[in-house]
Amino acid sequence: MTGMLTLATREVMERRTVLIAALAAGLMPFASPLFPGVTAARVADARDVMALVVAAVLGISVALLVGASVVGRDLAEGRLGFDFARPLGGLAICGGKFLGAIAVVLLVVMLALAPTSVVGGGIFSTSIPSSIGPIATPLGFMLIAILLLVPLAHAVGIAFRSRSGWLTLDLVACAVVLLVAATAARRLLVNQAPRLLTVMAVLSGLLVILALWIASVVQVTRGRTSLRSGHRAMSIALWSMLLGGVAVLDGYTRWVIAAGPEDVITASGFSAPRGDWAVVYGTAAGRGDFEPMFLVDTASDRFVRLGSATFWGGVEFSDDGSRAVRLETVDGEGDRFELQVVDLDTERPAMRETTLSFPVERFGSALSPDGRRFALLQGGSLSVFEVDSGKTLAAMRLPDPPAAENVLTRLAFQGADRLRVYTVTASLEIHELAVGSRALTTISGPAASCAWSALSWTPEHDRLLGWSECAGLSLLDGRTGTTLVDILPRKRFHGLLLSDGRLVLTGTEAATGMLELFTRDGVLVRTLDLGPGDRVVVGGEAEPGRLVLALVSGPEFRTDRSRLLLVDLDAGQVEELAEGLVPAASPTRWRSARPSPRLFYRGTALVRFDPRTRQEHPLAGR
User: What 3-state DSSP class applies to 391?
Assistant: First the structure.
């Protein structure tokens, strides 16, 4: 220990002129009032910032210079043999030299900050954000930089001084490490896992620092006075650790994005309007903030990976259930969308890209019933595209488009050749586009006392269901926007348009679940008491006229306090199917007003439940 400290002291003393220069440079911030734009009130801040900049520049520069020369210069000049001739071990020599190098760099930083610190600035400055911990302060980053740059400069210096063939290996290995690390980082970035990427970056940085220090120690202790032998030992040690590290990183990131539905812990999802396919997404075990999303065939457990369940990555099914599309950000950058397609009626469905891409800004989109056409509203521009070829079938600007923040906008195909755009401000406006002839018709509905905040539409019977805070629920004609009947001007019930055009309203009154059935013209037919409960969740029609819903008790939404019911709307009978199941309704009931009666939540898991056979099959979650 004494010998190591003696060597460290010698290294510091040999560089005392550098320390004097650092102290002199520390006086430079006092000239900051002479800089243009620095007012009298900002002199102290300017001085402190300049002191930090001077200390950082000097610290980084000296770390590089000292790291490259502390061992390499002595080896090149043949002076390291004098140290090994003494009764000192390789570890003591290595420790003394590098301890001295770090001490020199730290003293340079401290001396550069000393003059401003004496007058209350520098390390005592309130401009240094120390409230979130020293690691986040400029001085903390500077310390990390020193621990990285000293061994890095040493390794680079030894590699170039040795002039051996191992330098080629160093360059190739460095390129491989950087390429694999960048690929793994991009994999997490594209799949929207920024927190996991940050953790991996921090761990990778720590591995690099550790590997550089170990390789530096190996170079001194194994190579001793031989540059070439030391370079060889250093390269083997350094690249063994770094190549192994990036191999683990690459394997881990591949494992992260290879998650399947069985890996999901807390699952969410919704089903296609028809068929057995459903969207399943949620948090997965051991994968940080990466939330995988899948298309799952609930009948056969086949699935298609969709990447990350991001905000912009919503999935839309065609009405016939044969196709699903997704607008996904291009390369995870977030400034453009590309349209991705999955054909669900094939033997091996897979996500494929199309030639269609769009800027991020959009008001709404729609998929035709057969999934072959895609409509997009951006600003006031309405466009219809052919999905497979990318051909633009129609493009025009809506007359007097409202501002995005003041409008509720919904798009819907009425068949493959007719597109409607519903916009709601003070009144309902309907723009109908004949795609083939590119003729646009605009109909303005009657003004409302307050705007609707939600709309549902059933294409089979061309009916709209609008809800507003002041007017309650209203049934409207889907083509003209004419109000057919104001159903519930005061009750906060939820509405569902059935396959035959009838309307069902569900809600609670006095802690009792209620169901009201209306004709397609808004005439009340039947009122059913569903039993005690605080919330009704509708799951759709198991078959025409037979509605599946759940009644949840308690102030919190918990599936273990739910009862799954089957309601025969024509007979007025209510049958209990199971306990602890809640329908997984679609996040939007706009395109198809009938959520699936096949997908259900049980706790944090998603299950398939057949209301007819009462058989349950787990899909994802635990």
Answer: coil
Say how far residue 227 (Cα) sits from the centre of its chain: 48
Mean pLDDT of 2-14: 79
Residue-wise over 152-191: b if at least 16 C-beta within 10 A, else e?
A: bbbbebbbebbebebbebbeebeeebeebbeebbebbebb
Cα–Cα distance, 32 to 309 (Å, whole number) = 51
pTM: 0.79
Please compute the mean of the pLDDT values over residues 15-26 and round it to a whole number: 87
292-297 and 303-308 strand pairing: antiparallel
Band the pLDDT of 542: cuts 50, 70, 90: confident
Handedness of CA 238, 239, 244, 249 (dihedral sign): positive
Tokens at 32, concatenated: 């900051």
Give dist(CA 499, CA 331) in Å, integer.
40
C-alpha 240/C-alpha 304 separation (Å) is 37
**Residue labelled with tokens 């001295």:** 100
Cβ atoms within 10 A of the Cβ of 72, count? 24
User: What six digits make up the tokens of 549?
Assistant: 């819903």
Task: Give yes or no for residue 595 having a pLDDT over 60.
Answer: no
Strands 546-552 and 303-308: unpaired
Query: HEC string of 108-137?
Result: HHHHHHHHHHHCCCHHHCCCCCHHHCHHHC
pLDDT at 161: 84
User: H helices of 420-566, where?
Assistant: none
Q: Hey, which bits of 311-468 come out as E strands?
A: 315-317, 323-329, 336-343, 351-359, 364-367, 373-378, 381-386, 392-397, 408-413, 418-424, 427-434, 439-447, 454-458, 463-468
pLDDT digits (tens, 9 = 90+) for 483-516: 777 776 555 677 788 888 888 888 888 889 999 9
Neighbouring residues of 534: CB distance < 8 A, sequence distance ≥ 6: 508, 511, 552, 553, 554, 555
Mean pLDDT to the nearest integer, 257-284? 90
